[in-house]
Amino acid sequence: MTDPDLLVIGGGAAAISAARSARRFGKTVVMVTDGPPGGDCTFSGCVPSKTLLASAGMPFGDAMVRVQDTIAGIAADENVAVLEHEGIEVVLGRAVFTGPGTVQVGGRTLRSRKLVVATGSSPVVPKLPGIETVDYLTNETMFGLTEAPRHLAVLGGGAIGCEMAQAFRGLGCEVTVLESADRILSKEEPEASEVVHAALTRRGIDLRVGTKVEAVARTDGGMQVMTDQGSFEVSHLLVAVGRKPSSAGLEPLGLAMTKQGSVEVDLRMRTSVKNVYAAGDVTGRLPFTHAADEMGRIAATSALTRKPLKFAENAVPWVTFTDPEVARIGLTEAQAAEQHKDARVVELPMAELDRARTAGRTEGFVKLIVGPKPLTRNAGGGRVLGATIVAERAGEMMAEVALVMRCGLLVGRLAQTSHSYPTWSMAVQQAAGQLFGFGDRKPRPARPS
Q1: What are residue 367's DSSP bridge partners?
Q2: Per-residue pLDDT for 1 more than 60?
Q3: What is the rounded distance in angstroms from the CA atom of residue 260 to the CA atom of residue 270?
Q4: Using omega within 30 degrees of 0 as the cis cutoff, is the peptide bond preceding 308 cis?
Q5: 252: how many CB neighbours lie within 10 A of its CB?
Q6: pLDDT bracket for residue 449 (50, 70, 90)
Q7: What's the sign of the alpha-carbon dihedral 53, 55, 61, 64?
């Protein structure tokens, strides 16, 4: 066959987005993946984890069956047959690079002038003494469990660790979370950490912050976890301390890499090598499926057209799906105080929102961080620099803030837009209204940490 217009390496969200974008441009595309299309999100990330969270109270075996059924249903929307029906040639196997535009897969050589690298990421496993002697879990293996852990230790109090702690606790497991930082969700606003900490503790999860795990060892009943605060025995250990870019094998491309091993790209997803683009987790940018989808689309657009699309990193929201949820976009208050001397903050506790009162879910808050726009300054409220929402529906509530940021709209549009009563999203409107004298609360200067 003739060489395709675009060669995509990977099978996750970024790769599929890039391949589908190429087809929309009427171009030929080959996608090489060493696993089934869908990648981490479908098989070991977002899909199974959110299904497990939604299965609280079910028998453990039934919950795991539901997880696998959901994976199968969603995977069917993007399997090889579906993609090939869309005109995307899918080659299964590990790509071995022999040059910037040439790869070998099995005994086949593929060439293309334009290449998108979307090889994803993998779990980080810390170099703990004894870790190689125990059957620890990661997100890639925990959804294969057939029996409920008696006592699950979660190493890491970030988004994945907190979500899975809640999920397994909801299925009746004893759960202990071990976090070396002085709070869980340490990348979020401190107030968000406090709300989630209290919520998880109320559910009976043992949260041990400021605790360093020093070693693990196999025992007859499971494993011993040794920390600087003492030792205890558990049946299972989930390692959830982060992810690393899957960049091994990219050396023949001669790409500029970061110290963390990710591929350096600009906002158009261009690498240091002409006609080679990268997207998704391998770039080290926001490690979320929706971000990868956008990056894949931008990479294909940059490779195949003259459209000057750029990745709007500061306008991409993310959500930790604990209960309550934590949604964030853009800068935290401390970051804004450091970067923008005129940054201001408006806040609304969920206890002051009628919808939260009717639902009996008054924990959490909305925090909008705003700053002056060029030329017009604070007219119309200025612009949104960042936001954090902690609430039962925080992920849904953040969408309108993302739209305002992406379109460069005035903050006043949030206050001006009529919201149905009583809804969760009215909290965003009420918070923004403080900039215009509505309510008893007033804006305040952003404070450093």
Answers
A1: 347, 388
A2: no
A3: 18
A4: no
A5: 13
A6: confident
A7: negative
